[in-house]
Amino acid sequence: MQSRMELGVESAAYRAMLQLERYVRGSGINPTLLELMKIRASQINGCAFCIDMHTKDARLNGETEQRIYALNAWRETPFFTPQERAVLAFTEAVTLIATDSVSDEIYDEVSRYFSDDEIANLLMAIVTINSWNRIAITTRVVPGSYEPQPLHDRTFTPETLPA
How far apart are CA 89 and CA 14, in angstroms? Predict the structure, then answer.
């Protein structure tokens, strides 16, 4: 597989995506939950680069192999909290919005655990990872090249595409 193009900080569009990513990362969403959301959306979208990136980031931030491996079958496991389950259902519904809308049941369940502002942040996180998936798939960013960094050390550069 060969990358089609390199996105870089000289691109205004890329800088805008980085700003949205910075917002999401600073929005107060639990970093472990955020990585689970990103992995799950990336699984649905078939984005190998983002799956590679976010499983590495999740492990670096303390996520267990067991939960990462079971994420695509989260409904069938006891490994996720009710709050995480609500967010995973919300993530799937927003990611698959063309197939099914976000049902009242799913929205009401996520509302049990999060305020309207927090739900808005969760929604922006889902929108952002779906956008990164589409960018990485379209430009054929090669999976396996991403090296994780602790969140406090992370800088956003073309080499560390923050999807």
Answer: 29
Ordered mean pLDDT values, 10 residues apiece, the chain (163 residues): 64 88 95 97 96 95 96 97 98 95 96 98 98 92 78 47 45
Per-residue tokens: 94 = 């927003």
Contact 5, 36 (CB under 8 A): no
Instruction: Report d(CA 162, CA 86) in Å as an integer.
Output: 24
Cα–Cα dist 46/26, whole Å: 26
Contact 135, 7 (CB under 8 A): yes
Q: How far is CA 137 from CA 12, 49, 70, 90, in A?
A: 20, 8, 23, 23
Tell me what pLDDT residue 27 has. Answer: 96
Please name which of 126, 114, 111 lies closest in space to residue 39, comparing C-alpha atoms.
Answer: 126
* Interior angle at CA 38, CA 37 and CA 39, nearest 5: 95
Count of helix runs (H) and strand runs (E) in the chain = 7, 0
Give dist(CA 36, CA 113) in Å, integer.
Answer: 17
pTM for the full predicted model: 0.87
Token duo for residue 74:
């989260």
